[in-house]
Amino acid sequence: MSTHLTKTDFILYRECAKNVWIKWHKPEEYRKFEISAFEKALGVMGNDVEELARGLFSGGYLIEKRSAGAQELTKKLISEHHPVIYQAVFSTDEYLAACDVLKWNPEASAYDIYEIKMSSTTSQEECGVFDEDEEEDGKPKKVNKKKELQYEYDLAFQTNVAKLCGVDFNKKYLVRLDKHYVRMGKLDLGKLFEITDKTESINDTFLSVAMTHMTSAYEYLSQENEPVGNCSCYYTRGRSAHCTSFGISNPTVPAYSVHDLYKIGNSKAYLAELLAEGTIDIAHVLEDDRLKPKKPTKGKEPSKPRKLNQVRVHKSQQPIVDIDAIKRELDSLRFPLYFLDYETYPTAIPPFDGYHPYQHIVFQYSLHILRDKHSKPEHLECIILEGDPAQKIVESLRKNIGKVGTVISWYKNFENSRNHELANLMSLQDDRDFLNDLVLRTYDLMGIVHDQYYVHHGFRGSASIKKVQPVIAPDFSYKNLGVQNGTDAIEAYRQISVGELTGTEVEKKRLEMLEYCKYDTEIMYIIWKYFTDLVEEQGAR
């Protein structure tokens, strides 16, 4: 088992204590839940951000290990008041902390600590891939208070461990990317990063509270016998937010449980009530008022009864179909239809002029064109893997998408956000006008599912195309593809752009990326055709 509590495990402990106990005491079982290639890439991205941020603190000495020798070297450098230390190591019998940057403050006769995070100050879509089941309004999200508190506990952990080793820090700072920074020429580190003084937040009281939590965490994790009962995720979180080892800690939870109810993580009180009543299988959920959405505030549209519909279709195994609404949606489309899907790379450090941190680089698209209702779809595509692809992508889109007709996407907020960003990158007004027109012409095919016009038990409350596709087109599978999802495509682009893949490997991966993206627009056409045929069949009855 692990012998030292690190800041990483301390933060994980605060999220789900039993998950970290499994990690410490059953490492073989824990490792079975291998992280994805994309998650590994995020780790690489985080290291890149940290290395770049060190440029703000010149003359630093890098301590590369966590060994006893590294701890002695840290003591030596601190005793000499070395101006800057990267990855200083502090350790006791219970705790181990490595600090990103320590900078000697001669006026205070003490070190200031700087914790570097790869997140940005106004993160909205970082590192990521949009959740198609989330409603976005296109506005920057407010600061995530929970994440901010996590960062403060991170700094407090390091401060406490250093204090136990006889070192008191003066100022405590958080270093993050500034989402508002736009690269023009060489990176300006002073503008790329924003430094926030957290000293006042991490006061003596906060440090004392953090130390109490650290002590409790170490005692909990050091117990030899596995803690009895479910992990904390069982009581408070939906399926997508469960901890890594949820299946080990909660073996009796069925594959489709109350944790799969639509946005149940935002309804913690209701989840707690269901579990207290002994309701765990979604088939046993009562169809009472708790499943119904709250009454809307004045001036707002009423919410859809998504949880209620999800339970009803599961029990009946029959879909809910609003054929009039589906027909109304399909009748609003104008031929030719352009089924469009982008693949993008949201890199933390902007590599090209005009980009800000985590702006998505649109490097690929797939396009299926349906000239009229009875024709066969034509397929066109573009992928750019060298340099800034924006201009070439837009030129290709302008060549292939006519001035009339509906552009169809799945979760249009993503594609339209990219169109707005591409427009900002264009120097020609004609290009900007084209992209802005695409935004106005884009229809969200996901809306038929998301707006509850078609609810199927197989969707399991989701509107993700990866959940809809197996129901609508069960023979159409991504499983045999070399690139199987958006995160695979992101990782493929990263590997090519940094030179991890070369020669024939690049061409092989390029073809796999094209095949995957083609699948995404082809399945959109298949889903459109399914709903079109459904409307015709219902009308013929």
User: What is the rounded distance between the termini?
Assistant: 66 Å
Q: Please state the overall shape, judged from the principal axes of the Cα atoms.
A: globular
Cα radius of gyration in angstroms: 26 Å
List unreliable stretches of 5+ residues. Answer: 122-143
Mean pLDDT: 93
Total discrete domains: 3
Class derived from helix and strand content: alpha/beta
Helix content: 40-55%
Number of strand segments: 14
CATH topology of the largest domain: Nucleotidyltransferase, domain 5
Report the sheet with the most strands, covering strand number, pairing sense and barrel closure.
7 strands, mixed
Individual helix count: 20
CATH architecture of the largest domain: 2-Layer Sandwich
Oligomeric state as shown: single chain
Task: Tell me the fraction of residues in β-strands, as a range.
Answer: 15-25%
CATH class of the largest domain: Alpha Beta
What does this structure look like?
- The chain has helices spanning 7-15, 17-25, 27-30, 37-53, 68-79, 145-164, 189-192, 204-222, 233-236, 246-249, 268-276, 306-316, 323-331, 390-400, 412-425, 429-441, 447-450, 465-472, 486-497, 504-540, and strands spanning 5-6, 60-62, 84-91, 95-105, 110-120, 169-177, 193-197, 320-321, 337-346, 360-370, 378-383, 406-409, 442-444, 454-455.
- The protein contains 20 helices and 14 strands.
- The strands form 3 sheets. Strands 1, 2, 3, 4, 5, 6 and 7 form a 7-stranded mixed beta sheet that branches. Strands 11-10-9-12-13 form a 5-stranded mixed beta sheet, with helices on both faces.
- It has 3 domains: 35-222, no CATH class; 254-316, no CATH class; 324-540, 2-Layer Sandwich (Nucleotidyltransferase, domain 5).
- The protein is α/β, with parallel strands linked by helices.
- α1 crosses α6.
- A hairpin with a 4-residue loop joins β4 (95-105) and β5 (110-120).
- 34% of the residues are buried.
- The longest helix has 37 residues, at 504-540.
